[in-house]
Amino acid sequence: MITLAILNSCTDESDDGKVGTNVFHEKIPITFQLLEKYFIWRQSDDLIYQAWLQSASHRYKDLRSRARAKWEKKNQLDNRIGKNVWLSWIEEWKTPECMAKTEIKRNNRKGGADVNEYPATHTWGSSSARKTAALLADDYTRDPFSPELFLYTHTKNHDMKTFIDEKSAKIYEKIKALRDERSRPVDGSSTPQPVDENQLYYDAVAADEGYGEFVSKDV
């Protein structure tokens, strides 16, 4: 319901001409009221609402961040975003205040050092792996497997093929080698063996670090 409310705020205009962020702040309370009709909880309504509002705010910021990155790096527009909303976002991103904040965040992600002296180890910025996985879940319509999350966060502009460093490429090649080995059909069968994708990632990373094999918590 949070995602639906966010997308509606990015496509609709309110009666008084408000767009984007303003509409988002109007729709979230309305969506929460709908939620109250179908669910009950032991905590106070105010406590649940604050958690709901915080989660919605994070999801909205993530949507804007991903849309901006796609627009700036690939010159692509998110077709879920309305034209007027796009224009309002672009106008905001070009303000001196917003550009200054962006530069500060970029420097923070580099540890305050020049990029040539402090190479990146992943490409998901300051977002946690859990948050990035939640974003990818919208695209996959399921929780992403560990190799998929690794590929997304360790390739340039998330293109899923250009690795940011040799180590990342080596780990992913190990993942593919393990997948080929473990999915190989048994004698007398042409059907590939089922493979635990998450375990492939654990074992590939462990092999790279010289730790042998890990046992997945799901096993």
TrEMBL record:
Name by which UniProt lists this protein: Transposase
Pfam families (alphabetical): Transposase_24
Species this chain originates from: Heracleum sosnowskyi
